[in-house]
Design brief:
The protein is of the alpha+beta class. The protein has 14 helices and 14 strands. It folds into three domains: about 1-100, no CATH class; about 110-150; about 165-440, no CATH class.
């Protein structure tokens, strides 16, 4: 609930002009998110103090809706007051995640009831404690063995494993997802001695999947992969230029996968907050036998060059674009550069970019703290000279999954639809998309709210 609280409430509260209430909710979510960090320093604790200050200022907007039992509008009750002691407690005793304020009743089964059933029911308390001591010693031994095994694995091996994006599973059988085999595809596949289960031509896929710009995007992708293999470096503008006649790519053969495995930081290892964990991004037809496509949204890194445009968001967001996955594929190039005598397979992801309304830069809203993207406007042009919304990226440029939430109420009928980028969905998103000057901006907004509603 905490991860989606701000995105869910934002459209409703903005619609009714309750910006201060939204700011208060956002401050509470920020405070709770920071409190769940597995490691802290003076900087993160300063952020928590700032969030607590925002809560104390923005909470005054709720005075007018206090119940009749609290006519004085006072928020001096124990649960609210206890928040001011969180930061000092972290300084004294360490991260809050290392403590727990509740013990699930299920633990009584494994910690008391099951050990009791193994005793002779005489002096059972001593026997239960002995059993718990032996279990703890066994867990400690397992942890030591796991630590020794992890040290034996070199850092280079971990790095090579961690940052290589790979397709998920085996190739998709096209007939199982309703992509027929036409005569043109059959002849081309037979010429290369490949399986008709897994391969289709670009032209047949463009028609079956109804993606009009697919051939243009794949033609540019194959062209640039050939140039990359030859060591040719070009500017971003040249890499986005359309082919004069892209139909040479119609007969290229494509095999698809159900997704891609990426890597993201989770911030759960105090000794190494940059340690990564697997992140599976799905792009599959007939997802869970529903008959519909599941196409996850992702962050992609634009080419190999960071953007030089002004960006209000943090440096980590430089060069990131939001996109929806359309197809994860492997394409067979029968005419690779001259150094190779055999066909080469390129792996890539066909995506549809979202439009960033603020002149193509990330801009964080000062009220709800999220960035906004839109569906790409449908402005098809017969004289286009560069790629539009549909593009192909190497799998290495797929950064991580991104959580988008509709930014408008269903009855608003905004066209094209808007979406909020949910910063709170995971640790890496929270530390990637944010206003670089958020401390100053949030303090100014909180002080303005304090002047509007005052305090008692």
């Amino acid at each position: 609930m905490l991860k989606v609280m701000v995105p869910v409430y934002a459209p409703l509260l903005i619609e009714y002009g309750l910006n201060d209430a939204l700011q208060c909710i956002r401050a509470v979510v920020d405070f709770c998110t920071l409190a769940q960090y597995y490691t802290h320093d003076d900087e993160t604790l300063k952020y928590m103090d700032a969030a607590m200050t925002r809560i104390s200022h923005f909470i005054n907007t709720f005075r007018r809706v206090k119940g009749k039992d609290h006519e004085d509008g006072d928020f001096n009750f124990p649960k609210y007051h206890s928040l001011v002691h969180v930061v000092p407690s972290i300084r004294l005793f360490g991260p809050a995640v290392s403590t727990s304020t509740e013990s699930p009743e299920n633990l009584h089964i494994t910690s008391v009831k099951e050990p009791y059933s193994r005793t002779n029911h005489k002096n059972y308390d001593e026997q239960i404690l002995a059993h718990a001591r032996r279990s703890l010693q066994q867990l400690c031994l397992e942890d030591i063995n796991a630590y020794v095994s992890a040290q034996a694995e070199s850092a280079a091996t971990w790095d090579n494993q961690a940052f290589v994006n790979r397709p998920i599973g085996d190739c998709v059988e096209w007939t199982t997802i309703g992509v027929p085999l036409d005569e043109r595809s059959s002849r081309t596949i037979a010429n290369y001695g490949l399986s008709e289960k897994y391969w289709r031509t670009v032209a047949s896929l463009q028609q079956a999947l109804q993606i009009p710009e697919m051939t243009d995007a794949i033609a540019v992708f194959v062209r640039e992969m050939r140039k990359k293999a030859m060591g040719t470096h070009q500017s971003t503008e040249a890499m986005e230029a359309l082919e004069p006649d892209p139909h040479w790519a119609d007969n290229l053969l494509v095999a698809a996968y159900v997704g891609v495995r990426c890597w993201r930081r989770n911030g759960k290892t105090p000794s190494n907050i940059d340690k990564v964990s697997e992140d599976y991004i799905r792009c599959a037809a007939n997802w869970q036998n529903t008959g519909i496509w599941r196409r996850d949204c992702v962050f992609v890194r634009e080419h190999d060059e960071p953007t030089t445009r002004r960006n209000d968001a943090a440096p980590e967001a430089q060069g990131l674009l939001a996109a929806r996955m359309l197809l994860v594929f492997r394409i067979r190039d029968p005419a690779p550069p001259v150094y190779s005598r055999h066909p080469i397979n390129y792996q890539g992801a066909l995506v549809k970019l979202f439009h960033m309304p603020h002149r193509g830069i990330w801009q964080v809203n000062k009220t709800h703290g999220m960035s906004e993207v839109r569906e790409w406007p449908s402005t098809a042009s017969y004289r286009a000279t560069k790629l539009q919304s549909v593009r192909v990226y190497e799998l290495a440029h797929i950064v991580k999954a991104v959580h988008l939430v509709p930014a408008d109420l269903p009855e608003s009928e905004v066209d094209p639809p808007r979406y909020f980028v949910n910063n709170w969905v995971d640790w890496e998103s929270y530390n990637t998309i944010y206003d670089a000057d958020f401390l100053t901006v949030d303090r100014v907004e909180a002080e303005a709210s304090q002047r509007r509603f005052g305090s008692r």
